[in-house]
Amino acid sequence: MTEITIGGRSVGPAHKPFIIAEMSGNHNQSLERALALVDAAAAAGVDALKLQTYTADTISMDTGFAIAEQGQSLWEGQNLYKLYQEAHTPWEWHAELFARARQHGLLAFSSPFDETAVDFLETLDVPAYKIASFENAHWPLLRKVAATGKPVIVSTGAATLAEIDDAVRVLREAGCRELVLLKCTSTYPASPANTNLRTIPVLAETFGCPIGLSDHTMGVGASVAAVALGACVIEKHFTLSRAEGGVDAAFSLEPAELQALVVETERAHQALGGVQLCVQRSEEKSRLYKRSIYVAKPIAAGEEFTTDNLKIIRPGDGLWPRHWETVLGRKAAKALKPGTPLNWDAI
Question: Which residues are in the AFP-like domain (predicted)?
Answer without folding.
Answer: 292-347
